[in-house]
């Protein structure tokens, strides 16, 4: 089964989506939401593609490698943005780390 051979990626996707959702919510609570607007936007993009790819893997989609390549790109963009705020926001630091791990796992499949 495809989902068994991709168990490490599935976990990375799940963890990344969870961290992005947490970061998204925490950023909305920040005093200056405009300062983290791009972070919020990319958190949503990243969480959505991670969840989509996780589902695609479990249904044995023929497009897993292509989706993984796109997911890696989005994870990297989200990590880059979150790192801009990592010194001030722990949730951004954790999100960036999860995004980097997920991007690497995606590249291994792509």
Automatic annotation (TrEMBL):
Gene3D superfamilies: 1.20.1270.360. Transmembrane segments: none annotated. It holds the Pfam family Csp. InterPro entries: Csp_YhjQ, YHJQ-like. This is Four-helix bundle copper-binding protein. It comes from Chryseomicrobium excrementi.
């Amino acid at each position: 089964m495809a989902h068994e051979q991709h168990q490490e990626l599935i976990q990375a996707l799940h963890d990344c989506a969870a961290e992005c959702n947490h970061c998204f919510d925490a950023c909305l609570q920040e005093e200056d939401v405009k300062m983290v607007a791009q972070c919020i936007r990319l958190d949503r993009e990243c969480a959505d593609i991670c969840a989509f790819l996780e589902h695609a893997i479990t249904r044995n989609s023929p497009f897993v490698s292509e989706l993984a390549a796109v997911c890696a790109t989005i994870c990297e963009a989200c990590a880059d943005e979150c790192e801009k705020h990592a010194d001030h926001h722990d949730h951004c630091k954790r999100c960036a780390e999860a995004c980097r791990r997920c991007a690497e796992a995606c590249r291994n499949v792509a």
